[in-house]
Amino acid sequence: MTGLPLSAYQADDRSSVKEIQARNALIVGCMHRAGFSAFTGDGLQAAQPPDNATALPAGPWGYLGPQAAATLGFHPPKRTAPRPDPAPAGSGEAYDGARVDCDRQAAERIGSPPAAGSRLVDQLFDESTKATAKDARVVAATGRWTACMTAAGFTATTPEELSHQYQTTPEATPAELAAARADADCTARSGLAGLWFAVLAGYQRQLIDRNAQALTAQQEAVRAQDAKLTGLIAGEAGG
């Protein structure tokens, strides 16, 4: 997904990690200036791996990767949430007040790109995926996928329908892993994934042409925000 044309107009996973780093650096610096020099980030969220490191390689395009299918099924890999550190000994109203104030200051300094641009990108992503689902080429490839899955002993008219059948359990079952392996095989045999992403990219390029001015402004805002985050991190490190 990150390689699709519209992805160039929104913050990527690297920027998301950078925002967490900037927030943490700002809060730690603020707390030190408030007199709490021992503060190292109680309860601050650690910089996480990019979201696509824990994304499930299955969707309306089918299943990408027999290795993932054999181990994950239709359950995405789990992430371990960071556990907050306890507040330091002797914390009281002054500490709590400074912590809240530093959170507020960090949020104000970080800010975010204009919401209208992000909403437009989300809207265009939605339009492009809906158009792709209806495209005759994708419908035909999905039909080939369905025939392959039926021959393998699994009943589903679309890859999404198949995955929904197995996502009600907390862990992947042997039956689910077998279905996922068949999905990956039929995705490769039908050529569904390659076609799906190619058609989707084509629709997105059309939408970008129609919304060029607004999207260029959004792209500039995203780049400016990324540069701002870089500056905030450097400023706290140098402070």
What does this structure look like?
- With 239 residues, this protein is mostly helical.
- The chain starts with 12 loop residues before the first helix and ends with a helix.
- It is built from nine helices and two strands, in the order αββαααααααα.
- Helices cover 64% and strands 2% of the residues.
- The longest helix is centred in the last third of the chain and has 27 residues, at 212-238.
- Strands 1-2 form a two-stranded antiparallel sheet.
- A hairpin with a 2-residue loop joins β1 (58-59) and β2 (62-63).
- α2 (66-72) packs antiparallel against α7, α4 (115-134) packs across α9 and α5 packs antiparallel against α8 (192-210).
- It has helices spanning 13-33, 66-72, 93-110, 115-134, 136-151, 159-165, 174-190, 192-210, 212-238, and strands spanning 58-59, 62-63.
- The chain is flat and about 70 Å long.
